[in-house]
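Pilot study result, target chain (266 residues):
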Amino acid sequence: MILALSAGWGLAAALAAALAYAVLALAAARLSPATLRGLLLAAWLLHALALADGLLGQPPRFGFAPALSMTVWLVLTVHAIESRLLPQLQAHWALAGMGSAAVLLSLIFPGTSYPVIASPWLPLHWALGIASYGLFAAAVVHGWLMTRSERAIRQAAPTDTGVPLMTLERLTFRFVEAGFVLLSATLLVGWLFAETLYGPGLAWKWSHKTAFSVLAWLTFAGLLMGRARLGWRGRKAVRVLYLGSGLLLLGYAGSHFVLEVILRRA
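Predicted structure:
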């Protein structure tokens, strides 16, 4: 394992964010709504500072753990916006637990340093990919809430999600559609401009990362077609969503975990 050698303020922000998320995860049910919102906002801002320390430092660092941390931060951003529109949405404790784990993981595995970036457009390419990760992760969270709500309805038990089942389903597929658009753009840009982004001699090639990403794209395309043409809903649609998200996770985070942690290669 590699401990992050970040600046003092970056390390302090990461530890404070992990602590704030942990308090939320463990005590969300006992906190007042105002305290809950304030603590979540503080954790979110501290998390953003920790990410900025890694991405904007000299040299910048990036890898599987920072990618997962940024994905969770984006999911929390989506949740913060949604909670304004749907105050009854309940997922604070689960998201806070994910946030704490993601911040600590990125401290232990800070990623690879990039002393030289071949193209100023490369960070934009990264941003597209991570944004698609975040949208699909938000879809997975909503799919999980949808499954819990559906199970409660089948058992004639009260649901604790706070949002009607049909609303959760619509939100889930809105995130899938938006994520699919960004994933398509990410793959297309990587295919057409790989040498421009990564440097001469680094054209598009079939690697584990590419193969899993394309398989994920095909799975999400099948999910959207199945919903439009065959009316896929409920558990079947969520299972396909989980499959595609798992493949996408293996595409970047999985392949870089093997390179950085198991093989110890940059």
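One observation from the pilot: The first strand starts at residue 61 and ends at 62. A full batch analysis is planned for the follow-on phase.
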